[in-house]
Design goal:
Blueprint lengths: L16 H45 L7 H4 L10 H9 L4 H15 L3 H4 L13 H10 L1 H60 L1
């Protein structure tokens, strides 16, 4: 005879091979997920410890560790701007160039050559962007060269159109003058014929 338990042949029975395989797969996935979560927790703890150590070092050395502080701080401006200046700029009555010019004028009065004496510009040439250099840069600029070529092509097209129009008008003028000459000749020949006719009739 066969086995006495007919439930073993049902798909929902927990002791069937397919159901045991599914249970094993779910347990494996759960273990992997737990390991992944533990790894993330460990990384988070290490990162927090590192940040705490950096913060402690920053208080001792008085150096800022966060490199993105400048994004969240207020802009550093040499000349304190009043709310009236900012409002005028927002309303469009005062140009941003004026604000920059005022700022540069105030900075040059305070420290005329301080920016050339320290920092990245300590060894650079103060006259690096003079007029000659600007001209050379503009001549070497590929975009400017493309624009110059486009302008030259447009001017050439306009000149050729004007020349074609001029030659067309010249041809029309020549045609008119030749027609006038031929009509003048015809009228002269008619006049001569009339005179001859008159003379012959007399």
């Amino acid at each position: 005879m066969g086995s006495g338990d007919l439930n073993m042949k049902k798909s929902w029975h927990p002791q069937t091979l397919a159901n045991q395989r599914r249970v094993a797969e779910v347990k494996l996935k759960a273990e992997e997920e737990a390991q992944r979560a533990a790894k993330l927790q460990k990384e988070l703890r290490e990162e927090r410890q590192r940040e705490e150590m950096d913060r402690l070092n920053a208080t001792v050395t008085k150096k800022s560790i966060n490199k993105l502080d400048w994004m969240y701080s207020a802009p550093v401006i040499g000349v304190p701007q009043t709310s009236d200046d900012l409002e005028a700029y927002l309303l469009g009555t005062k140009d941003a160039k004026d604000l920059i010019r005022d700022k540069e004028a105030a900075e040059s009065v305070k420290q005329p050559d301080a920016k050339w004496k320290s920092g990245l510009f300590a060894f650079s040439n103060r006259n690096a962007n003079n007029e000659r250099d600007e001209m050379a840069k503009s001549l070497e600029d590929p975009l400017a060269e493309i624009k110059r070529r486009e302008q030259a092509a447009a001017m050439q097209a306009m000149a050729s159109r004007a020349q074609a129009k001029g030659s067309k008008e010249k041809r029309k003028g020549e045609k008119r003058s030749s027609e006038k000459r031929s009509s003048h000749r015809e009228s002269k020949s008619k006049d001569l014929d009339k005179e001859k006719h008159k003379r012959s009739s007399k």
